[in-house]
Amino acid sequence: MTPELPGYLIVMGASAGGMPALARLVRQLPATLPAAVLVVQHLAPNSSGQHLVERLAAGTGLVCELATHGQLLRAGHLYVAPPDRHLLVHEGTLLVTKGPRENNYRPAADALFRSAAAYYGAAVVGVVLTGMLHDGTAGLEQIKRAGGRAVVQDPLEAEFPSMPESALSNVAVDYTVPLAEMGPLLIRLVSEAPLAPGPIPEDIRLEAAIAERIVGTTEEIDRIGTPAPISCPGCGGSLWQLNEGRVARFRCHTGHAYTLAGLLDDSRRGLEESLWVALRMMEERKNLLSSLTTNSAELGNAPQLERLVEIKRHINRLREFLLNGLDQPLPPELEA
C-alpha cells in the first residue's frame, strides 16, 4: 500500500447548519491525516457545490475537491458530494451517481455510510453533524455493524439537533463530543491500527451493490427483507421491510430507501396534498351549488340549500384541520 492510499475513511453527514460546522471541524484536521474524508452536505440541487469546497479549503491543509466519478481515494484529501448526486465508494474509488433518493435525499449520508461500511468495514469512522430529520442514522448503524466507529456531534451545541439526536436514539454511538473536541478525536482514531476486520454482513454488501447499479431485483430484496403492505412513495412500487438492524427501514427494488420515520414524513406530506386537492374540489362544488340556488328557477329548492349548508360546514372543518396541522384527529366525515 502506498502512503497516499488511505488506511481509514472518515465519512461525514450534515444538513441544516452543516456548512459552518464542517468548516470548524476540518480546520482541525492536518494535511498529513492518514485517512480520506468524504462529506455529504445537503445542498440545493441547482447549486454548484464549489462554494462549499472553497469554504472548507480556506481553513484546512487537506486537499478539498468536489468528488468526480471514478476518482481514486487518497489520504489527506477531502471529497464533497456534488449536489443532487450520491457519493459512494467502491474498492478504493469514488462513484458519483444519480441513483434513487434515500429518505428523499440525494446526496444521502445513509448511502455514503453504507458503501463505506461495505468496502472498508472496521476502517471507517462515521460522523453525524447538525441537521434536521434523520439522514445518517441508518448508515451509522451499518458502519457499526461492519465493525467501524460512530461519532456524533453533541446535540446540545448543534444548531439543528435532530440528526444527532436521531443517531443517538437508534445507534450504539462510540463518541458524542462537541466540535471543538472532534478533530483531535478523529486524528487519534485514524492514527491507531484499525480494529480487527470481521465479515461484512451480507445485507450491507447487497444494499451497497444495489445502490451502485441503481436498480436491483425483487429476488435480491427478498434475501434481505419482507414484503410490506405499503407502496413506495418514490416510484409507486412495492416496498420491503429490511430484516437486519435496530433502525426500521424499507426499500424498493429500484433503490428508493426510507427509515420508518422518513416513510411517515412522506406519507404525511402525501396526505396533506390530497386533502388540499379535496378542499379545492369541495370549494368548486360549493360554487356550483351556490349558482344553482341563486338561479330564479331554483329559488326555494330546500334540498339544494341543505346540500349547500352541509358542504360549507365540511369545507370549514377541513380548512381548520389543514391550517392547524395533521396531528389532530380527522373530522369524522373524512375518516375511512
TrEMBL record:
What is one Gene Ontology biological process annotated in the Swiss-Prot or TrEMBL record?
A: chemotaxis
* Catalytic activity annotation: [protein]-L-glutamate 5-O-methyl ester + H2O = L-glutamyl-[protein] + methanol + H(+)
User: Where's the active site on this chain?
Assistant: S15, H42, D135
In alphabetical order, the GO MF annotations are: phosphorelay response regulator activity; protein-glutamate methylesterase activity
> Where are its TM segments located?
none
InterPro entries hit by this protein: CheB_C, Chemotax_prot-Glu_Me-esterase, Sig_transdc_resp-reg_Me-estase
- Pfam families for the chain: CheB_methylest
Gene Ontology CC: one annotated term: cytoplasm
**In the UniProt record, does the keyword Thylakoid occur?**
no
Domain CheB-type methylesterase: residue ranges: 4-193
Key words of the record: Chemotaxis, Hydrolase
Record EC number:
3.1.1.61
Which PROSITE patterns does this entry report, sorted A to Z?
A: CHEB
What the entry lists under SUPFAM superfamilies is as follows:
Methylesterase CheB, C-terminal domain
According to the UniProt record, what class of enzyme is this? hydrolase
Report the domain of life of the source organism. Bacteria
Q: This protein is called what?
A: protein-glutamate methylesterase
